[in-house]
Amino acid sequence: MTDTITIDRPADRVALITLTRPKALNALNLQVMREITAATAELDRDPDIGAIVITGSERAFAAGADIKEMAPQTFSDVYAADWFAGWDALSRVRTPLIAAVAGYALGGGCELAMMCDLLIAADTAKFGQPEITLGVIPGMGGSQRLTRAIGKAKAMDLCLTGRTIDAHEAERAGLVSRVVPAAALLEEATGVATKIASMSRPAARMVKEAVNRAFESSLTEGLLFERRLFHSTFATHDQKEGMAAFTEKRPPTFRHA
Ligand code: HXC
């Protein structure tokens, strides 16, 4: 079986995962899910990796879950296999994940991008949750993550009508953090990843954990969680080094520990 992804190291401490099913517009079948979750889990264990970029092709980040694979399934099949539950493994990755999106990010493709911590879009990107046009609903987190990302009004609009939004509307709505010319997408995403990966590894992971906690807890709990993590950074070498470097007016040399 041909691999559905490639894994590269485009810069120091940065991994790049590229979806490689261009003929199917990178539709997410079970094999893609297994390969992405296995690759990210392995990269997550690698102390020399500080950020992971996930990208597709110029035409499509991913045009959704694989409709041809899904079409013949019955309720018993998808319930028994707990279809899509395997993607939850991506939420357990502690390394910051960056989605670099060009072209279509529809259905499961939009949901995969939203599983990442940061979305950078090419000006060609198109986002949407068109599942309703197929007689189903989002199944990889779209109704939940999209609503948290852009609010009820826009999420209802996208999920109920199936319409797509362009990169600029996605940026205005708060779904993506930056829009760049398509030709500069990978350079920008790799640059952001390099910047993140140059920071203290434990601090970057704690930032990810703390921001994500905002979606899972009350404000009081979230503030307590953040404060306890903040206290714990004082047990790291990198806190001593970062603050000493500031005082000594020099760049820090983090040990990522
Ligand atoms: C399987 C797909 C696919 C998909 C595209 N292809 N999307 N195959 N699953 N999600 C295949 C097409 O069948 C075709 O292959 C090839 O990719 C190129 O696509 P075209 O349709 O010919 O390209 P174009 O006319 O440019 O249209 C692009 C498009 C359209 C607008 C993105 O392909 C499209 O609407 N795709 C489906 C988008 C979608 O509904 N996504 C949500 C899926 S459901 P062949 O060999 O046929 O030429 C989902 C649900 C998750 O994600 C959880 C709930 C169930």
Describe the structure in your own words:
By secondary structure, the protein is of the alpha/beta class. It has twelve helices and ten strands. The strands form two sheets. It has a six-stranded mixed β-sheet, sandwiched between helices. Strands 4-6-8-9 form a four-stranded mixed β-sheet. The chain starts with a strand and ends in a 10-residue tail after the last helix. The chain binds hexanoyl-coenzyme A. Hexanoyl-coenzyme A binds next to α2 and β6. Belongs to the enoyl-CoA hydratase/isomerase family. This is Enoyl-CoA hydratase. It catalyses: a (3S)-3-hydroxyacyl-CoA = a (2E)-enoyl-CoA + H2O; a 4-saturated-(3S)-3-hydroxyacyl-CoA = a (3E)-enoyl-CoA + H2O.
Bound molecules: hexanoyl-coenzyme A
What distance lies between the first and last C-alpha atoms, to the nearest angstrom? 39 Å
Cα-based radius of gyration, to the nearest Å:
19 Å
Mean pLDDT: 97
Please outline the major beta sheet: 6 strands, mixed
